[in-house]
Design a protein that fits this description.
123 residues, mainly beta, 7-stranded mixed β-sheet, 4-stranded antiparallel β-sheet, 11 strands, 0% helix
Amino acid sequence: QVQLAESGGGLVQAGGSLRLSCTVSRRPFSSNAMGWFRQAPGKEREFVAAVSRGGGATDYAASVKGRFIISRDNAKNTVYLQMNSLKPEDTAVYYCAARPGVIATKRDDYRAWGQGTQVTVSS
């Protein structure tokens, strides 16, 4: 069974940066592709970024490509989301997710989820 815990959210001004972290336990971390999703009030949870099991492949939503970077450190059982050039529309609760397979971008492909961390970008 996989357990995930996000951290690093907070309040930041537009144009600023934040780095989110997600730690994974109770299952071999390196066997899981990892993803970041976000959910704003009144909207459905949407894909943000994903990274393959070994970290060699990544995928990004068009809205964050070029601004966000997903990475992982399998030795630390941790996945990161570096968020740069933040915009007010990035405001959302960000969730870390894991799946025991290949990289994926669909919400339904992920089996385990963290509790989320709030990111608020002010203008």
